[in-house]
Amino acid sequence: MVKTGIDVLQKQQFAPLKGLACGLFTNLAACDANFTPTYRILTESDRVQMRALFAPEHGFAGSAPEGAHIAHDTDVRTGLPVHSLYGSSLKPTPEMLTGLDAIICDIQDVGVRYYTFTWTLTYILEAAGQEGIRVIILDRPNPLGGEVRGAPLDLKFSSLVGRFPVPTRHGMTIGELAGMINAQWNPHPAALTVIPCEGWQHDLIWDQTGLGWVAPSPNMPRFQTAQHYPGSCLIEGTILSEGRGTTLPFQITGAPFVDGFATADALNALAFRGVRFQPHYFQPTAGKWAGMRCGGVQVHLLDAAVYDPLEVWLGVIATLRDLYPSHFAWLPPHNDTYHFDRLIGSDQPRMQIERGETFAAISAGWADFVKDFHTQRGPYLLYP
Predict the structure, then answer these.
(1) What confidence score (pLDDT) does residue 6 get?
(2) pLDDT band with cut points at 50, 70 and 90 for residue 83
(3) Neighbours of 300 (CB within 10 A)
(4) Integer distance in angstroms from the first to the last C-alpha of the chain?
(5) Cross-strand pairs, 81
(6) How far apart are CA 292 and CA 281, in angstroms?
């Protein structure tokens, strides 16, 4: 079984933390092989001097809804301050860092650019570099493995769902990606240490690691959710439900105006590789269309080796737009930018879908960007 950074740190008897007053950026999904949260391991060890906790989107407990601002708090078990990095500030302030020698980071990424945890970590790297504080990352496997795929990011669309130009699937662990970002895009590079996993390599996906899946956020309940996520997250940028408030987030989509049978037939006729579409009806308890009966489809993953989630889910969006032109809509712009554009990394794919262009046309040029990124990331890889 693969050993994560926290397992390796325990084997090292916490030696890298000796003499350091530490903060910890984490949530309760980050745990060791015995499902003991890293937070508990570090706060209960007499070898570690814990001084503060830092929480990402969804909060320290990992239970808050997507996009909900998280308030600062005090941990009732330890009395430590819990500084929110998804509320009034995205970046640790000098006051939050007072008295710290290092920030330990243990957070499970899903290997997709849209996921906010990585970008919160980039703000930690910037603040730590400015204040002369070390950053120590306890690394974790990339659930999707090391394959690099997907769309580039135009920096005009930089946000907390993608700050720097990496592909939709970057194929790096959070430790590897942090090393690259710290060296290439951090104006004040931090002193960075990564405690690597043992036994992981880039050709392993999650279900080959021997590790149990612990949902890193409320709507990432299973590994298969993460496999769909590089494409299905784009549904967020439309008025269609992405399955929040159901037991199948990011595996279904629909709306009250959708005929599930007609939609499944239209999508199955497109013969996408590795998936099959089933008519699906659901009533979300939260999120879009909460409390309303929706028609739609469930996307069943049959062969991950040939499945391209971006091609499939962009096809889903285009098909539903064609089937229901008087109902389909993009989410309205916020600060003059469509959320769909922030996710995909450009405004071009949205406009190409509106013109009825094919996925081949939409993705033209992506392969060159992916090839360049594959070379660019080389010096920062920690695993074979």
Answers:
(1) 98
(2) very high
(3) 12
(4) 16
(5) 74
(6) 10
